[in-house]
Amino acid sequence: MDIRQLRYFQAIHEHGSLLGASRRLHVATTALSYHLGRLEEELGQRLFERRPRGLTPTAAGERLHDHATAILRAVDHAVADIRQGGKEISGVVRVGMAYSAVKAIGIALAKRMMADHPRVQLSLNESLSGATLSTLLRNEVDLALIYNPQTDPRIKAEPLLIERMGCVGMASLIGETGTPITVEELMTLPIIMLQQGVSSGMVLDEVEILKRIESRAVLKMNSVQAISGALREQLGCSISSRLSVSEAVADGTLSFRPIIEPSLSRTLCLCVLADTPQTYVLETVRSILCELIRDAIENGRWDAQLVAPEAR
């Protein structure tokens, strides 16, 4: 197996036919068919089912495509990185962020990249925190800002900040903004949570409290907008960071009460796949992300505490 065969295989997989791959690669269909046959012979597996209207990948073909995508992307990264050296960086960088992280620094990141590194194409992917981890594991993003990622040998996670959580809802239901609420008081209120579960959305550290919160949920929704609407209709309250509901709290639409006894928090980590090669462009984007997060905290836009470098 060599890089050329993997590129041929990837094109055939993505086009679903030898003809489509041939047009993309400018390689004869007979050559593609030959290399595909050699690859299947070497692996001892059929990679495609031959059908009248094209080729359908088998389970082995899907697995190989995942590996091939990661391998070829690593090769492309290596070539671009070495060619760049001390030159102006370029290429595509895909960054995944949870909703609140995008709210805090998403636009600032885009402006900074366009101003300082115009040859870098930034792809910003917003999702719920649990989904952001999935996109990283599927190699759909290169860097990801994720709250409390699960321990996984496939990823490297660098803690950046700790964010306190509060109870959010209509003042008529939860009380006035700024007044702390205890966990025991919280448990007497109707709680709305993300469909994926607190552990993948709100992402708190306290496991036992998480279980209690889940047991109290009256509604589960897989949409930030849906939860916001439910809060305004006084269907319940939710657990959130101050950043996530800052506008609604500022205009008096919703109330935010810090949770105490105990206080609840979540940790934001900068995550990469463990086998991702270090490149100039990724290191540059990582540095900018850390700088923007620090600035957002220092100027008060992000109500959080930086994790000291020695504690990482």
List keywords for this structure.
3 domains; 312 residues; D-Maltodextrin-Binding Protein, domain 2; two-stranded antiparallel ribbon; Arc Repressor Mutant, subunit A
Could you please describe the fold and organization of this structure?
Helices cover 45% and strands 24% of the residues. It is an alpha/beta fold and 312 residues long. α9 (207-216) links the parallel β8 and β9. It is elongated and about 75 Å long.
Strand element count: 13
**CATH class category of the largest domain:** Alpha Beta
The CATH superfamily title of the largest domain? Periplasmic binding protein-like II
Structural class: alpha/beta
CATH topology of the largest domain: D-Maltodextrin-Binding Protein, domain 2
Question: At CATH's second level, what is the architecture of the largest domain?
Answer: 3-Layer(aba) Sandwich
Distance between the termini: 40 Å
State the helicity in percent bands: 40-55%
Q: Which regions are unreliable across 5 or more consecutive residues at pLDDT < 50?
A: 197-203
Mean pLDDT: 87
Cα-based radius of gyration, to the nearest Å: 24 Å
Taken together, the total number of domains comes to 3
Order of helices and strands: HHHEEHEHEHEEHEHEHEHEHEEHE
* Estimated share of beta-strand residues: 15-25%
Principal-axis shape equals elongated
Number of helices: 12
Largest sheet: 9 strands, mixed
Quaternary structure: single chain
Family: Belongs to the LysR transcriptional regulatory family.
Protein name: LysR family transcriptional regulator
Keywords: Activator, DNA-binding, Transcription, Transcription regulation
InterPro entries: LysR_HTH_N (IPR000847), LysR_subst-bd (IPR005119), WH-like_DNA-bd_sf (IPR036388), WH_DNA-bd_sf (IPR036390)
